[in-house]
Amino acid sequence: GKSALAQSIKSDVGRAGCFFVSGKFSIRDRTEPYTAFLSVFNSLCDLVLSSRDSGVDSPNLVSSLKILSSIRDAISSESSSLMGIIPKLSLLLDSPEGTSNENARTMTEENFVLSRNKLNFLLRQFIHSYCSQKTIVMLLDDIQWADTASLELLKVLISDRHNPNLLIIGSFRDDEMQERDHPLATCLGEIRASNNTTVTAIHLDNLDVNATNDIIAHALTMTTDKTHNLAEIVHKKTYGNPLAIIHCLKTMQDEGFLQYCLGTLAWRWEENKIQTCICATDNVVELLISKIKKKLPMDVRKVLQIAACLGGTFDSSTISLVSEKIKSVAVSDKKHRDSFINEHDVDSAHCLDVCVDEGLL
Question: Out of the domains of life, which is the source (predicted)?
Answer without folding.
Answer: Eukaryota
